[in-house]
Amino acid sequence: MNILVTGAAGFLGRRLIEALLLRGSLTDRTGQSRPIEQIVAFDMVELTGINDPRVKVVCGDIANAHVLERLIDANTDSIFHLAAVVSSQAEADFELGMRINFSATQHMLERVRQLGTCPKWVMTSSVAVFGGQLPEQVPDNQVWAPQSSYGTQKAMNDLLLADYSRRAFVDGRSLRMPTIVVRPGKPNLAASSFASGIIREPLNGQTSVCPVPLDTRLWLMSPAQAIRNLIHGHELGSEQLTEGRVINMPGLSITVERMIDALRQTAGAQVAERIRLEPNQAIERIVGSWPGAFCAAYSRDLGFTADERFTDVIEQFIHEYQPG
Amino acid sequence: MNILVTGAAGFLGRRLIEALLLRGSLTDRTGQSRPIEQIVAFDMVELTGINDPRVKVVCGDIANAHVLERLIDANTDSIFHLAAVVSSQAEADFELGMRINFSATQHMLERVRQLGTCPKWVMTSSVAVFGGQLPEQVPDNQVWAPQSSYGTQKAMNDLLLADYSRRAFVDGRSLRMPTIVVRPGKPNLAASSFASGIIREPLNGQTSVCPVPLDTRLWLMSPAQAIRNLIHGHELGSEQLTEGRVINMPGLSITVERMIDALRQTAGAQVAERIRLEPNQAIERIVGSWPGAFCAAYSRDLGFTADERFTDVIEQFIHEYQPG
């Protein structure tokens, strides 16, 4: 199998590549398990720290058609398309968001269509496609009403991928991901960045700002679970995708208050006290428009899975990223 | 008011221009009624037969960025964007459909954004954005699941227009139209073309083919009602659009069998006998994926209206297009 991973130097991209290397094989679109021969790890910055002869690191601008032509060829069996500009950034810079989050996807799909090879394609969508008046638990047939440019761009990708799949130009699966928590590293420009920050920073002995009300309900998935589901999404046969190519992932529904409780329970009261409540209306407006719970019946039927306890999610983070 | 109408030589475009000329004024985006000074009537073929000094006929390719630059300038107060390639054509020629139905809209919105003038914008969307498992009456919060490239392209336009409106690049309204019946003229490549054909051709003394089962339920709107709603959609103030910019229009829900009954009632049994049942699976697949009835609560609240009796719709057609 020849695999392309975009956004390879990002948090999920790197973990996905590590998991694929460990796994060693994937199912091709004829249903046959085949060894992974090459993973093209593409990003605008260089993926470092993975030393495996199967990995070919490539840097470039994903919105550049010439770059895409070299990136995707007739030998590409599968594409994991993770590259994106995060929500607050797409809101702050409309042109950048459109270029990276939408046009690049459109160009990649066009490249694949012109090749005529119909590779497997797994990409991440977002709960940011939803908004407006929402029921407490969002059903699979809920209308899309994005309240951000990021959500709009992801929804347009979903529509394109579904149509390209219907026409057999690509064998696509778009996984609508919950907020991934706990991310390692530094805060980023995602409106949801605080959801990792309020766990990660206190564990690192630093204070962290919570910009939304304590009763804000979030829909979460741990990094390990996200990788499991990305690979599961790839492995499914197209004949199983009876309800379409855009799949609301299962997740863990929890309020910010309960997240902090779980941190207190796992790491102690003095750690949890490092969280400072500091309302930020811009972030509250975006995050508040995202649903806090989903039905996700289709994805559960397809065998996708969710985290069960947030304390486990915190322990996973401590185990993987905390020294000692 | 300086107005641009795309698809001006089409059936709806021509009627809209006639109605606007008769009306003489429109409400600008500050809420002020102003006389119509100019209507730029744009299409790939020349609009003929309307002789009014306020109308400027322009021909060209709507997907050409240079054409758009001349078409839309800082004086453009309102845009009625009706140009499109019909459903069967977009299905048969994927590239053409993407170029005319989606890319042209995207380029026009970009032109408007770069001008920074935030004109009013009314466009037609389609019930073809819906598909898959649908309730008997489609609610306003039904997920979009297009089963055709045409529906996909229209849904992408809707998403873009909503985001451009949210960011105040444009003051947009997308009216999700039922199938417009009875169209004059000849059959076209729309999958729904038969819905006019089974009324129009028998009235003209010709036989007509019905390619779908008699119990197929359609969601219809007469041409006169469509024009009324397009102008109503323009006249609404943006502060009234509390549930978003994409509005499922009200309509008349009726089976093909009842349509034929109405024709028999209005024009006699010998006319209705000119309809031949000839199943066509390709058309049945597309039309069968469209919902036959909508809740349309939002649009009714906003004052959009529907036809009440199909016999009236037929009589409207006879009155307007039948000699004698």
Automatic annotation (TrEMBL), chains A, B:
Q: Name one Pfam family in it.
A: Epimerase
InterPro entries the UniProt entry points to: DenD, Epimerase_deHydtase, NAD(P)-bd_dom_sf
Whether NADP counts among this entry's keywords is: yes
Any GO MF annotation of the entry: oxidoreductase activity
Give start and end of each NAD-dependent epimerase/dehydratase domain. 3-211
| Key words, A-Z | Carbohydrate metabolism, NADP
Question: What's the protein name?
Answer: NAD-dependent epimerase/dehydratase family protein
Q: What does the record give as the organism's lineage?
A: Bacteria, Pseudomonadati, Pseudomonadota, Gammaproteobacteria, Pseudomonadales
